[in-house]
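Z., the sequence and structure:
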Amino acid sequence: MKYLKIEDNRGFFLKETEAKNIEWKPVDEITKEDLLYLLNKAIGELPLKGGLDQNIIAAFERIAQGLKTLSWNAAKASKLNPTQIQLLTFLLKHEPTDYYVSDLAKEFNISNSSISDTISALVKKGLVNKVREGADNRHIKLELTSAGRSQALNADNYAGALISAINQIDIRDKEKLVSLMGDIILALHDAKIFPVQRMCLTCHFHMTNADGHFCKLLEKHLNIGDLRLDCAEHLPITI
């Protein structure tokens, strides 16, 4: 939209009147408020730098920032750090865990020493029980204590504000969103950005047929909303 023009060697600008009408006014009558109005209108019509793809990435970054803030708030309320919160909620969904320390480090994309420190802190706080499996000190079994389970259940609701926003989305749009997010996560998994994934699309039990998605383990058809991004029964596809 054009906001300035020259006519008969005189400059004019578009001005919004109190009646919300748009009129051409001489430039010598322009005020500070008029300049701010024109600037905001012009910025609003600028093309997005980098196009639609970059705008989608910016949206992901804003959501990730919000989740990080919510996670920190939950951690501070429970006097834990975000990694400790993550491990508690992980155990809640995957208990009992029979892992090597290195597997858990890969799960959270941190060093072996960092995950060992996290486990030790949770054991010391009485939130997790640790049992060594056999003679190998690296092989451990972790279980939530009753206090740990309570903390994990509270922490698992840390994204309540985001859930409230998602609840306002139409069910069909939610299904499209889940499908699109799954495709993006799968692409990042294939690019080895995510070291560990337990989603249906990377599972040995997943298949597609004329009806869509099917789970061979559950022996049932899966709707888009049934596709999991973190399934405890996940079995990686072997090539």
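The longest strand covers residues 10-16. The chain has a mean pLDDT of 79.

Let me know what you think.
H.
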